[in-house]
Amino acid sequence: MKTKEEKAEIEKKILQEIEATERSIIELRELTKPIAPDCAIGRISRMDAINNKTINEQALRKAENKLKGLNITLQNIDSPDFGLCARCKNEIPLGRIFLMPHSRFCVHCAG
């Protein structure tokens, strides 16, 4: 069970992560806009642009999932199960929560 002070620090960290993730999503959405076929770039450059777009689309999906997890964690911060692994029900170490506040699993169960 986390103390009120620990929960306050975790909440602050989650809000910082939400802000950073929202900024990242905005940037990634710009990078994943369609590539115009009439754009005057060479064939190789076009292939590079398409490859980069695919990588950025994957990063965007990952960031959107992270944001969703952060928001869920923030909503559940006052739950009696907060800080417990969703699988084994053991307490998740505070260090892991600060590193990955959106994770619902301890290191052992996440692997």
Instruction: Give the number of helices.
Output: 4
Radius of gyration: 19 Å
- Number of DSSP strand runs: 0
The helix fraction, in percent, is 55-70%
Report strand %: under 5%
Assign the structural class, choosing from mainly alpha, mainly beta, alpha/beta, alpha+beta, or little secondary structure: mainly alpha
| Element order: H for helix, E for strand | HHHH
- Give unreliable regions as ranges: none
Largest sheet composition: none
Give the overall shape, derived from the CA principal axes.
elongated
Average residue-wise pLDDT:
90
Our measurement of the CA-to-CA distance between the termini, rounded to an integer number of angstroms, reads 23 Å
Description of the molecule:
With 111 residues, the chain is mainly α. It has a domain at 4-79. The protein has helices at residues 4-31, 43-75, 94-99, 107-110. α1 (4-31) runs antiparallel to α2. The longest helix is centred in the middle third of the chain and has 33 residues, at 43-75. The mean pLDDT is 90.
